[in-house]
Amino acid sequence: MFNRNRGLRRAAAVASISLVAGCGVLSGSSADNSGPIVVGTTSAPSTLDPAGSWDGSWELFRNVYQTLLAYPDGATTPQPDAAQNCAFTDSGSRTYRCELRSGLKFADGRKLDAQAVKYSIDRIRSINAPSGPAGLLGSLDRVQATGDREVVFHLNKPDATFPFVLATPAMSIVDPDDYPAHSLRKDASVYGSGPYTLRSYEDGKRAELVRNDNYQGFADRQNDAVTIRYFQDSATMVKALRSGDIDVTYRGLAASDIVTLEARRSTDLQLIDGTGTDISYLVFNPKDPWAKLPAVRKAVAQLVDRAAIAHSVYRDTVDPLYSMVPAGLTGHTTAFFDVYGDPSTAKARRILADAGITRRVPLTFWYTTDRYGSETGRMFQELKQQLDDSGLFTITLRSRPWKTYVVGYQKGEYPVFGRGWFPDFPDADNFIAPFVGEQNALGTPYPSPVITGRLLPRSRSESDRAEVVKDFEEAQQILVNDTRLIPLWQGRQYVAASDDISGGEKALDPSTIMMMWELHRKTSW
User: What global pTM score does this model have?
Assistant: First the structure.
């Protein structure tokens, strides 16, 4: 039975980023050497309940909750965390068994057993939240707890990616006594069995994490406490870093701030720059009278100038992207460039004329003001100018804060809207599967029977991911032909930190989620 009064701890999320070593030093002053490490981000969580989140809220979940599998430092495939071991027990990749570590407890001291794991997974599907991760469990038939420590997952089809799914923070294990089976928690007194517990949380402002003494897992904590501060914009966040109010920034640094920081070098701050796998893209609503027309979508794809966006808006801190699968992952292509080539008004006009469209097409583009960085508004202004200047479109821009923005696209209110994506796991599958099918991460049904009925099932039966490149190439070509989604750019990741902070190079798992426990002060050695 759910007992809300027992929950004394709270949980929050931090934003994902991809770190690769390579630093410069910048001007600023270091923070106080005592107290928690303070991390700044512009991306606050949308929910504190794992069953309701398929977004950046996962960041904190990784640090507060625990999953059966995760990514220890240096691992590129999931390894046991709450589990002692996991493996497929059949040759067809349809039965997956995990044995839990002995003596697992939640942060409040209550027992964590196989029934809690089963309850947590079943709860995700039972609640089936519009913005939740139930779509990740499409291959799961049922979960079986065969004892205190053994959990067996029975799949309805072969799925070599299922261990990756279990490693996502969406599959966080929760206490059955404190999390209702059929509804989301709305309060902030959440807790799990992860490396930290949440001492306090102020919505949109601050999350205070402290060491969870009951934790058992692979994390070797290099600090005792981390405070996450949520900022509305990059400039305010960078000012806090320079003044020493925060120690680390990640996710949300504006291009102008990055360029300024790179130009002003000293020994007080360090900048870490690396290639990311986050992407930005447009989504077209098939229920809108204009956006539902293939010719309209294809004309937009023909006009979008990604290089101009990357250079003039992001000052070359992102790279143009011509596929929903980013560069660096097996299966990446340049399918949109192969079909459309360079931006061309003449070609776009011909696409519309061939469909009998001779008037300017009115479209409303929506974007969120507080999720994907300070440049988002400027990017949409650039898109509007590109399309308006063609003489073929009249673009109206609208925006909302993230929490109400999500509600809007789930209700199908937006003709065209912007989204970003950080991977659930580092595989091309995760840049295709979440966006297609009747239930997807966009809240906009996208039936694609060839992808969902043939290509993804076939690729998931193959454990050697290098053997499924042709399937992913075909899937991406279908996405180009449909043009329901238009990729815009692939991110680079920048983290600025006080020079006395170490561990940044080890703090990111392959799904680009920060493992706060790796951060520490040099003076604490």
Answer: 0.75
Distance CA 512, CA 369 (A): 22
Per-residue three-class SS string for 68-130? CEECCCCCCCCEECCEEEEEECCCCCCEEEEEECCCCECCCCCECCHHHHHHHHHHHHHHCCC
Give which of 13, 16, 46 is closest to 514, Cα–Cα.
Answer: 16
Q: What parts of the chain have a pLDDT lower than 70?
A: 1-34, 74, 264-267, 274, 509-511, 523-525
User: Is 228 found in the same domain as 194?
Assistant: yes
Torsion of CA 369, 371, 376, 377, to 10 degrees: 0
pLDDT single digits (tens) 262-314: 876 656 888 887 678 889 999 999 999 999 999 999 999 999 999 999 999 99
Q: Do 331 and 372 sit in the same domain of this protein?
A: yes
Number of compact structural domains in the chain: 2
- CATH number at 289 reads 3.10.105.10
- Nearest CA among 243, 315, 290, 306 for reference residue 492: 315
Q: How far is CA 494 from the centre of its chain?
A: 16
* 403 neighbors 395 (Cβ within 8 angstroms): no
Mark whether 258 and 374 lie in a shared domain: no
262 with 215, same domain: the answer is yes
Nearest to 192, CA basis, from 519, 204, 209, 423: 209
User: Do 258 and 302 reside in the same domain of the chain?
Assistant: no
DSSP characters for 311-334?
IIITTTSEEE--SSSPTTSTT---
Torsion of CA 373, 375, 377, 380, to 10 degrees: -120
Note whether 120 and 173 are same-domain residues: yes
Q: Are 174 and 314 part of one and the same domain?
A: no
188 phi and psi angles, rounded to 5 deg? -105, 10
